[in-house]
Amino acid sequence: MRWLGCSLLLTCCGLIQLSAISVADDAAAAATDAPMFESVPCEGTYPHHLQGVCTDGESIYWSFTTTLVRTDRRGKLLQKIPVANHHGDLCHHGGRLYVAVNLGKFNDPNGNADSWVYVYDANTLEELARHATPEVFHGAGGIGVREDHFYVVGGLPDGINENYLYEYDGDFHFQKKHILASGHTHMGIQTATFAHDRWWLGCYGSPPTLLIADSNLALLGRRTFNCSLGIEGLPAGQLLSTSGKCEPGTGCTGLVHIAVPDEQTGLRLLR
Predict the structure, then answer these.
(1) Which of 82, 89, 262, 270 is deepest in the core (most CB within 10 A)?
(2) What is the domain-level CATH number for residue 51?
(3) pLDDT recorded at residue 36
(4) Residue 212 lies in a domain
(5) Could you tell me if residue 22 is inside a domain?
(6) What is the pLDDT of residues 246-255, one digit of tens each?
(7) pTM, 2 dp
(8) Any domain includes 42
(9) How many Cα atoms sit within 13 Å of 116 on the Cβ side?
(10) Are 188 and 163 in contact, with CB atoms under 8 Å apart?
């Protein structure tokens, strides 16, 4: 077993030492031998850009801001529905999809967001429920699940040198606002998943940023890696990381890649 090297992060409070992250090379090697998933594009083009992906092991679910899409593992389109603008990142839990939705302003210092979690049946994409999440002050943009609790992430105005994750129980009763000592990330955290005993959090920026945290949301690392359009855990040490692009007059596309933990970059694409 090898260990991620330590780096230094400058915050408003000064330099803080990032914790080391362990990576099991044998698990990554086993994952490479017989992957369940491959790097595949999502069939079709869509009016707005990709916000996140998740999977139930059989289907891949894609949130394209105003379109919710279900494909098979090869990216073949199975179903799509129009949804409210702005549907963000999503997660799968117990046969349902949970999508972070903001109907107001993002990154507003005065908190003029309108934050929700919309719930869909994973098989039919039928809307089942809506849960208001007003605690997500700067706009709900992403969601992950751990031990039947949901963690909503979202926008962040300039000048704030930490990020926030808002914890809810399975009935979406608010539990706690977690503060992640990450330093500033452009527009906050866009995507979130808990996999392989840690949180993986994708952020915009130039360069884009990957935040890695332990199960208690203590920061383990800040790396340059782009999973701001989607990150999802897979078995055997793997993850899905997503890319996409938009072309005027054509529309927006999405592509999932297979990734594994890496010492230097946080994640490394296999193909």
Answers:
(1) 89
(2) 2.120.10.30
(3) 83
(4) yes
(5) no
(6) 999 999 999 9
(7) 0.88
(8) no
(9) 14
(10) yes
Q: How many CB atoms are closer than 10 A to CB 125? A: 17
3-state secondary structure string, 85-131?
EEEEEEEEECCEEEEEEECCCCCCCCCCCCEEEEEEECCCCCEEEEE
For residue 18, report the phi and psi dihedrals to the nearest 5 degrees: -80, 140
Cβ count within 10 A of residue 189:
29
Cα(181)–Cα(77) distance, rounded to whole angstroms? 40
* Beta-strand pair 22-23/163-168: unpaired
- Considering only 7-11, 67-71, 127-131, 134-138, which range has the smallest mean pLDDT? 7-11
Q: Which residues contact 30 (CB under 8 A, 6 or more apart)?
A: 236, 237
By C-alpha distance, which of 70, 130, 61, 135 is closest to 92?
A: 61
pLDDT tens per residue across span 32-76: 444 589 999 999 999 999 999 999 999 999 999 999 999 999 999
Residues 6+ apart with CB under 8 A from 111: 137, 138
Structure tokens at 199: 């949180």
Residue 250 bridge partners (DSSP): none
CB 259 within 8 A of CB 268: yes
Domain count, the chain: 1
Domain that holds residue 75: 47-269
Whether residue 20 is predicted with pLDDT greater than 80 in this model: the reply is no
In a domain, 176, yes or no: yes
